[in-house]
């Protein structure tokens, strides 16, 4: 039995090795999951570390807690816009797609391993889902920058497909154990997982967001702790009632993240660190749990099963499920390739061991080998596949970074650091000509490590950092001003009024926001409004429409000139998209 001092020493060494491994994986292009698992195997009883560990219950506990916090971190970083753009294809892939993948892989596993068809289906169910922690890590930190709809689909699918895999795994274990008959009992189990997990996750998310915004805590560090407590409470409550804890904690994170609670940036930073600690400890512990000598024995059948999973089962599932959602052939091919496996399959593989099922050890070793193969083959080649399929989109380096306003009250504002390079629209322009919305203030310029107090006539140079104070609702407009000239940008939100100075010229709006206004480019918004209204009608609240734009007078000066207008982008019907409304401003 290890002493607590020795255990602390081992954990510290494993964390340091994990950090060093991440540095190595970033340079070599090897997926961090693969490296962490190898570190764990080297630290295990058959490696140089010699750590004796074969407690599947403890491994399941470590994996569950770690995945809970990793999913919560993924949830709080997922905006509603990602959900809206991807919930349909992601939902089908997370349910029917997982089922098809499990069915095909399970049939292959039963034939290759010479086990019963039910045991084969159990193995297929275990490896049927895409792992959220690996997908989040690859898409957000692996240098893969793909089209938003594609990335959103992968993230939402990986965060929501665990209930289906868990339902299939637990259901088949209960069928094999004789606890639940095949049929109605499985349907009830599935509905409980989805419905209860969703209700608990959304309910605690709304309640937790309210608490984080209205409960005054004296120490700033307690807000991230409260968020973590809400995540664990959501998981535990859903699981206690028979729902999916993983789905619940992911939904709780989504709701809290989109409600922007007090100390929001601090919560994000804290959970980013927690997610990394969880990944290192979870994958390393699962690596220690494995036995390399046993993996050699299942290498050939596991490679055959991996081949079926990667090149047959996942592609068939993707093309059958996602072809209906207007993905191109190249995008479907990429979706097929990003069926990354990770901690969820290895954690689920401990279930048969805990249940004492026949061939449980064979299934665990096979699943472990399949995960290693998936991480190495799919994870390592992912950036190359994206480039080969021409799915990468331009990225701004370095991207704008939102900083934290240090306050324990809910301040409706952000501090954003924009990097100006040669391709930026704002390069070479004076600050007074940037067409910034009302209330947006450039607080600071940083050039060559020197601080420059900004003035209206200050010219922005390439390599400048521009520190901007703004309200979150006008962030979309300011992002456009500092965007690349050739970069594809997301549409400006429709039916949201943006305040602009009356002295801003029409040409500046057209240039920075990608909008078209049928009038003289040198005319100001004040002149535009006066030209289209009778003098008696120029008053606060008066509105002028220009095709799909509306300008409302918000404030007049003492001399009667228009000081501020509110610009609203009206919904535009797209005849090629079934009559659905779309926003202007997309390139």
Short note summarizing the structure:
By secondary structure, the chain is α+β, with helices and mostly antiparallel strands. The protein has helices at residues 4-28, 32-43, 56-76, 80-113, 117-126, 132-141, 148-160, 162-177, 184-214, 222-240, 245-258, 264-289, 292-297, 299-322, 329-337, 343-355, 360-388, 475-481, 506-513, 525-532, and strands spanning 401-403, 414-419, 441-447, 450-452, 465-470, 497-501, 543-546, 549-556, 562-569, 572-573, 581-582.
Descriptive account of the structure:
The chain has helices at residues 4-28, 32-43, 56-76, 80-113, 117-126, 132-141, 148-160, 162-177, 184-214, 222-240, 245-258, 264-289, 292-297, 299-322, 329-337, 343-355, 360-388, 475-481, 506-513, 525-532; strands spanning 401-403, 414-419, 441-447, 450-452, 465-470, 497-501, 543-546, 549-556, 562-569, 572-573, 581-582. 57% of the residues lie in helices and 9% in strands. 42% of the residues are buried. β7 (543-546) and β8 (549-556) form a beta hairpin. The chain folds into three domains: 4-28 and 57-288 and 297-389, Na+/H+ antiporter like fold (Up-down Bundle), CATH 1.20.1530; 396-490, Regulator of K+ conductance, C-terminal domain (Alpha-Beta Plaits, 2-Layer Sandwich), CATH 3.30.70; 496-572, Uridine Diphospho-n-acetylenolpyruvylglucosamine Reductase, domain 3 (2-Layer Sandwich). It contains 20 helices and eleven strands. The chain is elongated and about 90 Å long. α2 (32-43) packs across α12, α3 (56-76) runs parallel beside α11 (245-258) and α10 runs antiparallel to α11. With 587 residues, the protein is of the alpha+beta class.
């Amino acid at each position: 039995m290890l002493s607590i001092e020795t255990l602390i020493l081992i954990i510290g060494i494993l964390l340091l090795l994990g950090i060093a491994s991440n540095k190595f994986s970033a340079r070599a292009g090897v997926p961090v999951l693969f490296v962490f698992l190898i570190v764990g195997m080297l630290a295990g009883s058959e490696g140089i570390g010699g750590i004796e560990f074969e407690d599947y219950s403890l491994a399941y506990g470590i994996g569950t807690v770690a995945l809970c916090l990793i999913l919560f971190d993924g949830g709080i970083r997922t905006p509603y816009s990602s959900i809206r753009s991807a919930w349909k294809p992601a939902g089908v892939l997370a349910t029917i797609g997982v089922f098809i993948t499990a069915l095909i892989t399970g049939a292959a596993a039963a034939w290759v391993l010479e086990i019963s068809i039910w045991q084969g289906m159990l193995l297929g169910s275990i490896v049927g889902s895409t792992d959220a922690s690996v997908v989040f890590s690859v898409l957000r930190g692996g240098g893969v920058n793909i089209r938003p709809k594609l990335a959103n689909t992968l993230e939402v699918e990986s965060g929501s497909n665990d209930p289906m895999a868990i339902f299939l795994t637990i259901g088949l274990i209960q069928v094999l154990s004789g606890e639940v008959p095949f049929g109605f009992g499985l349907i009830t189990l599935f509905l409980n997982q989805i419905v209860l997990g969703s209700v608990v996750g959304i309910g605690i998310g709304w309640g937790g967001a309210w608490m984080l915004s209205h409960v005054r805590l004296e120490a700033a560090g307690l807000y991230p702790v409260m968020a973590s407590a809400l995540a664990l409470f959501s998981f535990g409550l859903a699981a206690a009632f028979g729902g999916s804890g993983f789905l619940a904690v992911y939904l709780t994170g989504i709701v809290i993240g989109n409600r922007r609670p007090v100390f929001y940036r601090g919560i994000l930073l804290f959970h980013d660190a927690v997610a990394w600690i969880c990944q290192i400890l979870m994958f390393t512990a699962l690596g220690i749990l494995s036995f390399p000598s046993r993996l050699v024995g299942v290498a050939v059948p596991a490679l055959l099963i991996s081949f079926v999973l990667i090149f047959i089962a996942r592609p068939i599932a993707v093309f059958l499920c996602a072809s209906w959602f207007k993905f191109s052939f190249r995008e479907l091919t990429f979706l097929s390739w990003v069926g990354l496996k990770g901690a969820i399959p290895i954690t689920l593989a401990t279930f048969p061991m805990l249940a004492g099922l026949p061939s449980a050890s064979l299934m665990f070793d096979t699943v472990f080998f399949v995960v290693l193969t998936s991480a190495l083959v799919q994870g390592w080649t992912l950036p190359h596949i994206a480039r080969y399929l021409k799915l990468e989109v331009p990225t701004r380096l370095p991207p704008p970074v939102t900083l934290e306003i240090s306050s324990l009250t809910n301040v409706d504002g952000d501090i954003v650091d924009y990097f100006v390079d040669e391709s930026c629209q704002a390069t070479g322009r004076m600050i007074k000509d940037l067409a910034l919305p009302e209330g947006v203030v450039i607080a600071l310029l940083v050039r060559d490590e020197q601080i420059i107090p900004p003035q209206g006539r200050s010219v922005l140079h390439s390599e400048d950092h521009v520190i901007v104070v703004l309200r979150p609702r006008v962030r979309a407009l300011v992002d456009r001003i500092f965007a690349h000239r050739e970069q594809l940008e997301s549409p400006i939100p429709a039916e949201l009024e943006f305040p602009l100075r009356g002295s801003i010229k029409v040409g500046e709006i057209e240039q920075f926001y990608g909008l078209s206004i049928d009038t003289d480019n040198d005319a100001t918004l004040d002149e535009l409004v006066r030209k289209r209204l009778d003098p008696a009608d120029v008053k606060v609240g008066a509105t002028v429409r220009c095709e799909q734009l509306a300008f409302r007078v918000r404030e007049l000066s003492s001399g009667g000139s228009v000081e501020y207008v509110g610009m609203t982008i009206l919904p535009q019907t797209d005849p090629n998209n079934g009559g659905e409304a779309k926003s202007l401003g997309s390139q």
